[in-house]
Amino acid sequence: MTITEHHEHNRTEAALKTLTGWGRDPNSDGGENIAFSVSRQGAPSDAFLAIGDCTPFTPQGNRGVLTGQPPGDTGAPVACFIDFGIPLSVNQVPCTFSFDLNSGKITLVGSFPGLPSSLDFTVEFDKRFQGAGGDNILFHSEKTSDHAGYVIAVQHVAAS
Amino acid sequence: MLPAYGVTIGAYDHSGSHQGQWLHELLYLKAGETLYECAVDVNEPAGIFQYMMLGSLDRSLFQAISALPDGYHSLARDSASGAIDYIRSPLIQQPEGCLMAFFGFISGIFGSRTISVWNDVTGNEAGNALVGLVTGSARVYVFGAPYANPNPYPGMHDVHMNQGDPLGSVFHPLDGIWQDGCVIVDGSDGRLAGYFGKFATQSLTTDSNGWPI
Predict the structure, then answer these.
(1) How many Å apart are CA A65 and CA B146, to the nearest integer?
(2) Are A82 and A73 in contact (CB under 8 A)?
(3) How far apart are CA A16 and CA A26, in angstroms?
(4) Residues whose CB falls within 8 Å of the CB of residue A5, separated by 6 or more in sequence, listed in order
């Protein structure tokens, strides 16, 4: 591991630790809940945006796991595929989401059209920023289960 | 206590929800040329949120508020200003008491469990009920705390019960009496109706500090 890779690894570990703090207490720092948005950048027809709430937290290992809200609940994860036909339409595919904060591995499971039903990737930290009503941490994918790239933003949504 | 408390009055313009902020239904009210954003709580991320709809509120008990012009008005936290208190306001207690008596009567006849006037939220039902209430209304009154930062919109938050939080809760220091949030509308049918929300952990029995007894 080069010095730069070591530095990136440390920043990722620090970000995962921060997410663990949000998961343990969503009300910390004036927050309320935890939301995510993942974009998959594959071949054009395979691109999608998955969004949802991942406030449910299960302590596990040194950190824990953030999980999407269950089906039917507010913020249950959904993946959106755009059909560029006329007229334009969006195919909404319900899915599950889990973010293992020990390994940094994210798993999405759903009936994704033209894709494996289970997709996973590990993350690497990109940046942390304030905006859109909360504290955000942005990651990109490192190792993926398929031939695609992913970007995920996790937001500690500020209370209203 | 909340840092500030008041009511925003205006005409319902539209509603929505920002990505991630699904615990609130955002109501946009037009007061003159100003658009107000009101973040009304409709759910809770890890516990139970409860809501109550009251359909026939007594207009004579609402005159201090209905006489105000559109816009935001700060309210004194007492019984004379028109401020709302879920536990102490006759405006709420009278119809809620009638509903409880009705449910008690039904439970007595059919031997069913006691039905609460408060509904537990499991999905989007509170948000849907709220939007149904304000859609087509003549005038909307949103009680709560004004946004500290009016950009990009002035508006309201803490639109829920603001007392009775458990000791040790992060919200306990914000508790007080006569500072509860809710949404009341002049309905298209001429009735005065309201949406009231609370977290299940909040007690409906409080002392003069708004702390649970």
Answers:
(1) 36
(2) no
(3) 15
(4) none
Note whether B24 contacts A160, CB cutoff 8 Å. yes
Grouping H, G, I as helix, E, B as strand and the rest as coil, residue B173 is helix
Q: Is the peptide bond before A71 cis (omega within 30 degrees of 0)?
A: no
List of residues 6+ apart from A114 with CB closer than 8 A: A45, A46
DSSP assigned state of A30: G
Count CB atoms within 10 A of the CB of residue B182. Answer: 26
Residue A4 to chain B, least CA–CA distance (Å): 33
Interface check for A67 against chain B (CB to CB < 8 A): the answer is: no
Please state the φ and ψ torsions of residue B97, each to the nearest 5 degrees: -65, -40
List chain B domain ranges: 6-199
Strand partners for B50: B120, B198
Least confident of B133-142, B147-156, B191-200: B147-156
User: Is A138 part of the contact surface with chain B (CB cutoff 8 Å)?
Assistant: no
Tens digit of each residue's pLDDT (9 = 90 or more) over B3-62: 999 999 999 999 988 878 888 999 999 999 999 999 999 998 877 899 999 998 999 999
DSSP annotation of B206 reads B
